[in-house]
Structures are given as C-alpha cells and as structure tokens.
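Z., the sequence and structure:
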Amino acid sequence: MEIRIAREEDLEAINTIYNQAVQQQFCTAHLEPVSMAERKQWFLAHKPVLHPVFVAENDGRIVGWVSLGPYREDRQALAHVAEVSYYVDEEERGKGLGSKLMAHTVGVASTYGFSALIAILLNRNPASIGLLQKFGFKEWGRMPGIARINEHLADHLYYGLKL
C-alpha cells in the first residue's frame, strides 16, 4: 500500500468512499451524497502545497483518503491550524488503514506549517473517536445535540492535537 498526494483522476474513488460514509450516517453531517461537481470544487480548493489530500492506494485501487483543510480560512490567526478529515472504503474498514492514514498525516502536518490539527465529527461515530484518541487527540469542544439525522440528535465534537 502506498500513501501519496491525490490526483484529479482519484476524485471518483474519493467521492465514492465519502458517499459511503454519507449512506452509513453519523460519519459526516452530510445527509445527501456529494456530487462529482462539488467534489471537484472541493479538490481544487485543496492546494497540494498548502492543504493536501492524500490517498491510500492498494494494487491500483484507492482504498482511503485523508485531507488537511483550512480551519476558518479567512482568519489569519488560525492559519497554522488544519482540519483533518479521513475516510476509508467500507470494504477496508477495521484493517488498520485509518491508523496508517492518520500516522502519515500527523507525521507530515508540521512540514506544511501546521502546529495544530482539528477533527470535527459526531459523537455517534465511536470508531473515529477511537482513532483520534489513539493518536493523542483530545476533546476540545462539544456542541450538544445540534446535528439531526433522521430525527436522531448527535453532538458535534471538536477534537484537537497540538503538534
């Protein structure tokens, strides 16, 4: 398996993996699948030299991805903070791929000028919480019961790690 910078030709796989999480529910706050046009716009906003997207490729197949995105992009005092997002293909979950993606990202984040990472997630996603805690992330904030998915409420969590 190789972890590398994502290319435009990876977008279909990236979007498929993300939309699996949408369908699973409580893995993202999106309720409807993301279109390829939306994904392309998202990708173009992630400049590889500043806010990279990495993919995990196994035997020519994209099996997961992670991104370092801007956190409050228009606020200069927060330019050293990146929002980390990560998703693993449903067929590959539970095999340690999330840990490999997170280890890579934590390992390279400072080379992009980041001194803190923030992950924003829902409290009904215990696998993601466990992954973050494994890498030393701590809960830095909680907005109780503000996400509504099929009439079920979830807390919106902010987990952080100072590098």
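The mean pLDDT is 96. DSSP finds four helices and seven strands in the chain.

Let me know what you think.
H.
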